[in-house]
Amino acid sequence: MLEVNHVSMTYRRPGKNAILTHALSDVSLTAEAGEFITIIGPSGCGKTTLLYCMAGLNPGYAGSISVDGELVRGPAAGRSIVFQQSCLLPWRTVTRNVGYSLRLLRSGTKREMAERVQAAIDLVGLSGFEGYYPAQLSGGMQQRVNLARALATRPQLLLMDEPFASLDALTKELLQGELLRIMRDERCTTVFITHDIEEAVLLGDRVIVMSPRPGRIVHEYKVPFDRPRDREIAESVEFSDVVRQLRAVMREELERQPAEAEPAGTATGRRA
Fold first, then answer.
1. SS3 content of the chain, % helix, strand, coil (to 5)
2. Is residue 243 within a helix (H) or strand (E), and if so which, with residue range?
């Protein structure tokens, strides 16, 4: 179970008159074990900042984040993150890239690690490409490797930062369908960041809407579609109605925002 309690974060740009950027303000949410949460919002609303806080990559926040009751104080086993870019090591094959996290964690015997790596490769549909290098793979296949590397560690919490944003439309749809299938089998707690409202509704059990200046949660929507589900549901009238409602919420929030960015401030204390 993931618990985010009253998290705020302020960045301070170094200098004589340090400029403050209020990235997050009093953000609270929970995710039950096995739940798939999607977070949407305009650029600059703090989605990625919040995800990095959950991963332990942004330690300078106020408030608390815990996974199964254990406070997040930094990166740790049990939490895996899939970045927007593939972040693969170009000199390693698919197998060695997928197994890299397991080697760092020293998770199991050599044989056990090899079995987990192969199982993850099979799960994302890359059987037969084990000996390929990243430069020999398409962008979609590289993201499959990235996902396999995250799943090989068998995380309690999977964090995904717009993993399909840079892909073409057809590849994106294919990987959305693959992720639905994978999550049907794995059911690990997942937080998925996206700008795409349709993607958020298709994948999520709940959709969290954030608004900028400062970043905060303004709306939560429980997706009314049962699991297992597939991409065919995106063709339904009910799906379009949910997307239309969420788009209206986001448009209303954007209209409330001031035309200019928040004024620069002078730092008077430490980063929140």
1. 35, 25, 40
2. helix 237-256
Does a structural domain hold residue 246?
A: no
Grouped pLDDT means (10 residues each) for the chain, 272 residues: 92 68 90 94 89 90 91 87 88 94 80 91 92 93 92 91 89 89 86 95 95 88 91 92 92 70 39 34
Asked if residue 263 is part of any domain, the answer here is: no
Domain assignment present for 255: no
Measured in whole angstroms, how far is the alpha carbon of residue 68 from the centre of its chain? 18
| DSSP helix/strand/coil, 210 | strand
In contact, 177 and 234? CB cutoff 8 Å: no
- 141 with 188, same domain: the answer is no
Indicate which CATH number applies to the domain containing 223: 3.40.50.300
Can you point out the beta strands (E) in the chain? 2-13, 19-31, 36-40, 62-67, 70-71, 79-82, 157-161, 189-193, 206-211, 216-222
pTM: predicted TM-score of the whole model, two decimal places: 0.87
Total structural domains within the chain: 2
**CA distance linking residue 160 with residue 200, whole number of Å:** 12
Nearest to 190 by CA among 221, 151, 247: 151
Q: Structural domain of residue 31, as residue ranges?
A: 1-11+21-78+158-168+178-195+203-233
CB 79 within 8 A of CB 160: no
Residues 125 and 34 in one domain: no
Structural domain contains residue 185: yes
Instruction: For residue 193, count other CB atoms closer than 10 A to its CB.
Output: 24
